[in-house]
Structure formats: structure tokens, C-alpha cells
Amino acid sequence: MTARDLAAVVLAGGLGTRMRSETPKHLHPMLGRRMVDWVIQAARALEPAPLVVVSSPYTRDAFDGVEVAIQAEPRGTGDALVSAREALDGFAGDVLVVSGDTPLLTSELLEGLVETHRRDESAATVLTFEPDDPGAYGRIVRGEDGEVREIVEAVDASEEQLRIGEANSSIYVFAAESLWLALDKLEAGNAQGELYLTDAVRHLVAGGERVAAHVANPALAAEGVNTRAELALAAAALRDRVNEQHMLAGVTIVDPATTWIDADVALEPDATIHPFTILRGETRVAARAEIGPHAVAIDAQIGSGATVGPFCYLRPGTVLEAGAKAGTFVEIKNSHIGEGAKVPHLSYIGDAEIGEGTNIGAGAITANYRPEKGSGKQKTTIGRNVHTGSQNVFVAPVTLGDNAWVAAGSVVTENVPPGALALGRSRQINKEGYDDRKRD
Which domains are delineated in the chain? Predict the structure, then answer.
């Protein structure tokens, strides 16, 4: 596909009222991206120039790296495409029109659509599919010769037309010259009072032009999202697609159905992801690392041979070097855990630097928020080969030198020299006969 003869328009101006959300439909998140971003990515792979997103006035600032055209009022798909006309002024090639609520689209499917369009030398080509339940989708009406004659919206279809199983995906390729002529003929004479892009197909056929069809396989790739239920189904399909790609590349995902990995997460071969694990953002997992079960990592860097979990939460800014461990019921945020260092269980580590080979005892807490020390979080620095006891609190800013030791139950408020033992707890006092006196 070449940029000079293909333009693309992504229709994302609708608010999606059936989502029952203050967030516009196209901006709902799915595996680390917004719904419309999946569509834009699929279209971008064909290198269209220009690539235009039709937006409502409310979301005009939501898009980067594309031209944005504004649909002032939601007057239908035909009107949405008219809104992009200025951005396509002077363009004389083929125009790919994509609905912004079809996140399961692939670049391969769009390439096939464009190839069919050009092979058949059509004025327009529509991507069709055969869903299990055509429901509210427009129906593809073909003639006896199998050619597309018109697309009838479900609300305007007869009972006979509603029995047609082939549905319109609202994804097309038009020859630009034919497109503008057909759009000029659109009228709002329908049940919705809108300008239907589907009517452009009817006008082209009436004018003696050919309209071809390219059938999506699998049909799921052309499904749109209009409700929260459909959003969940589409997200699950994307999850399966992402997981399969990782597994084919050499990653072990023990239970793909319970593992959610964002699109921009990077996993090296021989990493192992256990059940009920969520990897989000730009998390990076190196070879031979094991994550989970029941672990969450967001924008974390996990080194070769490191282990995370079970029941672990790695927040943004976490770096685990090779062989490091973040164990059971551990939360780490904005911290660097050195090579071979271990935070085995029941600890919170935030805004900290922990050196290689160090072992942090159970129940450790870095208390790093101290407004009296200045703005922002304060830092805890723990050197190499340090051994801390259970139930330690490190009150930042504080530094522990290499090979230092910390007694169990200590609250560390001052720096600890290398090789020293820190004890920061009150002396135990036993009161003999206390229980008897309480009873009396």
C-alpha cells in the first residue's frame, strides 16, 4: 500500500449514548489503549496520507499524530464523512472509511478490503460480515448476479430484509471522485433523520457504478462496540489475541483466560506468566522471570530471572534487576531493587534504592512522606548485602550502608554506617502479676 494513493478517515464523532457513560464511546480503555486507538493503529499500518479522525467538538483535543476534522452535530455517518472533505481537498485516490468503534479490526483485513476494491475496479467496496445475530446492523442487499445493490439500515428494513444474514460493518473504500458525487446526493429521509453513508452506496448503484463487497473472516474482526457488554467481549478477544502473540514468541502464559497484558507490554522469550496476572502500561519482563499468580505490574521493569508474587503489586517506576524478588503481599513503587535483592513478603517499598544481595525482612515499610523535610516524597537508600529484621520502618530520608544489619522491630530514623547494627526499639519491660491485678 502506498501513501500517495490511499487516504483514511476514522469516524469517531459519536458520543455512544448506549454506553451509559460520561466518557465518549471511542475513548473507553481497552488493554492500555483507547478503543479508537486500536482502529487508528490498524489503519495507520496501510500508510494512508492523510489519516483523518472525525471527532465531535468535545473530543477534538484527544488525538495526536493525525489530522482532526470536527463534526459539529451528530447528524449521521454521511455527515461525518462530509466533515472530512476539507482535509481531503485535492486528494484523488481511494478513501478508506473506518468506524472508530471496531477495535478488533486488523491491518491485514483492511489491506484485503483495499485489494478487493482495486482488483474489481469498483466505485466503492464495503466490508461485510455474517455475525451470529445481525440485530441492529444494516443488511447487505445483493442482486441476482451477487452484486451489492444497497445497504438497508435495520430500522428501515422490511421483515424480509431483516432475515438477511450478511451485515454492513460501516467500513468502506471509495474512489474519491465517486464518493463526493454520492455524498452530495444524501438526504435525511429516514427514520433517524440522519445522513446515512449507506445511502451513498445506493446512489452509486443507481448511477451505474459498481459496488463490491469484501467479506470479513473471521466475522468477529468487523464487530462494532455499542454497549458495556460488547466492550467486555471485544476486550476479551483482544486479550486472547495479545496473549497468543506472546505465546507464539516463546512466552509461557499458564492460563491465558485469566491473564491480561496491555498492548505495549514487552515480554522476552522464556518469561513465565502465572494465572490472574495483570501487566499494564509499558511493563518490561526479561527472560526467565516469573510473574504471579495474582500479580499486578504497571510500568515496571522486571529483570532476567526475577520473581514477582504471588499477590504482589508493582507500581510505576519499579525496577527489579536480574534475580531480584518481590514476594507475597509486597507493594513496590518508584524503587530500584538491585540484582539478587529480595523483598520476600508483607512489605511496602516506595521511593527507595536497594542494593544488590540485600534481604528485606517481613513487614518492612519505607515511610517516605515527610512534609517537614521538603516537598515530595523522601528517599530511602539501602546498600548492598544489607540484612533487615522483621517489622522495620525506615523513616526517610535515611541511608543504610553496605553490609549493615537492622534488628527486628526497629524504627530507623538515622543513617546506619556500613557494617553496623541498628537497634531502634524500646527496651522490653515485663510487669509480673499484671493479669491478677486486672482481674481484681
Answer: 3-222 (3.90.550.10), 243-422 (2.160.10.10)
